[in-house]
Every structure is written in structure tokens, then in C-alpha cells.
Specification:
Structural class: mainly beta
Shape: globular
Strand order of the largest sheet: 1-2-3-4
Number of domains: 1
Helix content: under 10%
CATH topology: Methylamine Dehydrogenase, Chain H
Low-confidence stretches: 1-6
CATH class: Mainly Beta
CATH architecture: 7 Propeller
CATH superfamily: YVTN repeat-like/Quinoprotein amine dehydrogenase
Strand content: over 45%
Distance between the termini: 13 Å
Number of helices: 0
Radius of gyration: 18 Å
Largest sheet: 4 strands, antiparallel
Length: 279
């Protein structure tokens, strides 16, 4: 989809009319596209041609919340309302390893930049680090006092940030899951978290406000970034100079990543935007 013209680019995804899809994600190199369907299947396409490269018949027993592709494009991981995450080989389109189990719905997931580790976040109040090649758990669960709503790896994989309904974000050791800082306190449940490209800063959002933080000291930076309504997601630009935020009121706003000042309002959509990606 071309954001400016609101018109489709290229052809319809092959076989996409056979299922009702609720979400899609590109691989890091933008060569592959995956999408989860309401019938608990997963579609895989060549993002350049729209041709199907496989359909994953999952063992999930309930709704799939999300599917993400590993940085090398060879694996994917799906997370579900059935309290599991599952690893997939995108060459064979087969599941491998044992299901990665939580005690509650699994709502967030991320690969480390080298693809060797995975972190999942659950409504059981924990995030868990796993071996990204085998699905074996690594270290103890990272515990919040309520649902883990969002998470991210630092670019070098040495740290993890989690956000929670307990109104905190927390930073953990990306190798063993041990806590590294005091909680980053918010006034509302934390909805989105993201590291900048060199891992020195964080951006978080809670209700209508986004915040910049120093990731080492957990100190806030600059101005709070305000929307008229609840923020769905926040993300740094690839060069780290800008932060983008999207809100349910239908705007995408761009902010200066040094001080939180507003740079631009790029898009307004009456139906709102669910997600976005810098190019």
C-alpha cells in the first residue's frame, strides 16, 4: 500500500482470498511477508512478487496474535491465545522444537538481532528468554506485577525492555533475564516500547503520552510527546534521529529523538493505523 495515495502497490497476494487474515509482518530485508489468519493458519509470500511460498498448518489451538520472521529470514515464530509460542522453518514450512509455554496468553515476541534468542511476553505477568534455534528456555522468567504488553531487544542483544499493565517498563539482561534497572514508572499501562538503533535510548508509550529515556540510567529525556488520544505504537527511525508514534485518533506523528519536540504530522486516516514501518 502506498501511504500517500492510499492505493495498492503490485498484485494481490496469491491465495490470500482463501483465508481471512488479521495481520501481516515483513522480514527485516523486506523480501518475505507472513500473515496470520483467523483459522489458525499462517501464510508466507515473496514480498516482491506477491507469490505464495507456503502455508503453515499450525498446531495452535486458539487465535494467533502475531507472527514474526527471524533476521536471517529462515525461521518464524508465532504467538497465540493458546498460551504457546511456536518456531517454524520457512524452508520446509514445518514446525520444529517443542511449543514454548506460558501460563497465560502470549501477546508479544521479538528475535534478537542475530536470531539466536527469542523473548516472549505473556498475560501471566512474565517475559521469557528462549533459544531461538531450539525453543529451550534460557534463565528465569522476567516478572512484572501484571500483563506483559510489549517488549524489544536492544540492537546488540545484550538488553531487553518490557512494558506492562503494571504501569512500568523494565530493562533486563538479554543473556540471562536478570533485572538491570529500577522500573521506569508511568501513570498508565505501558503499551509500546522500543530501543533506538545504538541501544542508548528508549521510547515508551502509555495512554496519550510517549517518553524518551536513557537506557543505561533510566532517566527521562526532553519533553513528553502528546497525542489527543491513546498511542498504539512507537518506534525510532533507522538513523535514530526521529521517533514515530501512531494513535487511535488516526495520526502518525514524527518527533525529534533528541528532545521530544514535534517535527511533523505525516498521515491522517479516519479509520486509524494499526502499525507502521520506517523504510
Amino acid at each position: 500500500m502506498n501511504v500517500e495515495s492510499q492505493s495498492p502497490v503490485g498484485t494481490q497476494l496469491a491465495n490470500s482470498d482463501r483465508h481471512q487474515f488479521q495481520g501481516f509482518n515483513f522480514s527485516d530485508d523486506n523480501k518475505r511477508l507472513v500473515g496470520q489468519a483467523f483459522d489458525k493458519s499462517i501464510g508466507v509470500w515473496d514480498a516482491r512478487t506477491g507469490m505464495s511460498t507456503g502455508e503453515l498448518k499450525t498446531g495452535h489451538e486458539s487465535l494467533i496474535w502475531n507472527v514474526v520472521v527471524s533476521p536471517d529470514g529462515k525461521r518464524a515464530i508465532s504467538i497465540s491465545q493458546d498460551k504457546t509460542a511456536r518456531l517454524w522453518d520457512l524452508h520446509t514450512n514445518m514446525e520444529f522444537g517443542d511449543p514454548m509455554k506460558h501460563q497465560g496468553n502470549v501477546r508479544s515476541v521479538a528475535f534478537s538481532s542475530d536470531g539466536l534468542q527469542v523473548v516472549t511476553g505473556s498475560e501471566d505477568g512474565t517475559a521469557q528468554l528462549w533459544n531461538g534455534l531450539t525453543g529451550v528456555p534460557l534463565g528465569e522468567p522476567m516478572r512484572h506485577e501484571s500483563n506483559v504488553t510489549c517488549l524489544d531487544f536492544s540492537p546488540d542483544g545484550t538488553r531487553i525492555v518490557t512494558g506492562s499493565s503494571d504501569k512500568t517498563a523494565r530493562i533486563w539482561d538479554g543473556r540471562n533475564g536478570k533485572s538491570l534497572n529500577s522500573p521506569l514508572a508511568h501513570d498508565s499501562p505501558v503499551a509500546s516500547v522500543s530501543f533506538n538503533p545504538n541501544g542508548s535510548r528508549l521510547v515508551t508509550s502509555a495512554e496519550r503520552t510517549a517518553y524518551l529515556w536513557k537506557s543505561e540510567s533510566a532517566e527521562t529525556i526532553g519533553e513528553s510527546m502528546l497525542h489527543p488520544d491513546r498511542i498504539r505504537a512507537v518506534k525510532f527511525s533507522p538513523d535514530g534521529t526521529r521517533v514515530a508514534s501512531i494513535s487511535i485518533e488516526g495520526t502518525v506523528r514524527i518527533w525529534n529523538a533528541r528532545n521530544g519536540s514535534l517535527v511533523a504530522i505525516l498521515v491522517k486516516s479516519s479509520s486509524g493505523w494499526q502499525s507502521f514501518q520506517f523504510q
